[in-house]
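Subject: sequence -> structure tokens, single chain

Hey, anyone have a minute? Need the predicted structure for the following. Not urgent.
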Amino acid sequence: MEQLKKELNFVQGVGLLTTSLLGTGIFAIPAITAEIAGNNGLWAWPLLLIMIFPIGLIFAELGKYYPSAGGVAYFVNRAFNPTLGRVSGWFFLTVIPFNLPAALYIASGFWVSLFNIPPFVELLIQLMTLFFIWLIGLFGAGASGWIQTLIAMLIIGLVMTIGFSSSPSVLTIEWPNLWQIDAVSLMNALGVMFWCFVGIEAFVHLTTEFKRPEKDFPRALIVGLVLAGFIYWACTAAVLSLSTGSIVVTTALPNIIEQLFGQQALWIFCAIGYAACFATINIYYQSYARLIWDQTKQDFPSIWLAKLSKRSTPVNSLSFVILLSGIFLILIHFFTISLTSLLIYANGVFVFIYLLAMLSAVRLLKGKLRIIAAICTMICVGLLWVIGYKSLYAIGIFIFLWLVAKCLTLKKYH
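Reply:
Had a minute. Here:
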């Protein structure tokens, strides 16, 4: 049986998760947090980490005891039944047409802001980005791990430079007293900040490619989670410390860069910003490829998507995802389709995926871990409630896929 190559270590794992969590968020969410919550945002990041940490812990334990390229779909399969697991796998892929093209638009936006390039050139940059992701995929998860570890170091270096080049440094910023915190603004900020930690579910798909998944995967997940949280906090502190006047989300960090280092440093900021976006997009494409390979291997083992390359990487399924994204990019370009509302619905998909993982953990894990998984389940339900009616998109898609799977199963046995 064909198996994915085991080549990831602890350091590469930390680099992969950290960059997937930072991604596009590091250049927007700290400014949004500062705009919504002011200095209360300093408390928001530790609070969010307290909320996310148990979810990360459960993902780490699931990845430790049930390593699989199928990720959440595999957990659901083991906890419930193959049909529900299959539905969960295909359900995860419903975000591809709009989530990934949106991320590519954010990535190319750095070059648009710097060089004021026309839309057609921006489309070419996006397509070239897809090509580079495909090239990296030819060499397996090890190549992605080292590249994204380097990008993680660049992001950390940039944030630390911003934070500690200022006088005084971000570590001296004054925290508001707990009894002075505006709970409403804090909760509003948390609603936005949660999306900084969407990416854990994609990281789980790489568990089978760790040399020591039972040891290195949980450690990499927890360390990457805490590291990303600290970087977000430091960046928020920098925005609060160095911004003059009202905070404009799109220009907050570029203005700080220009203030500290001059206009000539903006191109470095744009290059690192693009690299951060590239890192997030890359891990999602590599994860989607592995999920498609795992799903087709089970459901349609004879087709080309179920085959691995000579390097034991799912190049065929990666090529399929790249091609699909390219088609949607071109459609979005020519029909000027707005992605804002679609992204909101995509968030509902991600929360629903987290909910499925936590429900699976309640069935699969034991003792204290089962109790933590139950608490995490309630957190996910609460998040779906916060999203409101827009979460009906995710619920409706899941029910539709489940009905299709049930019909196919019945047809198979009759």
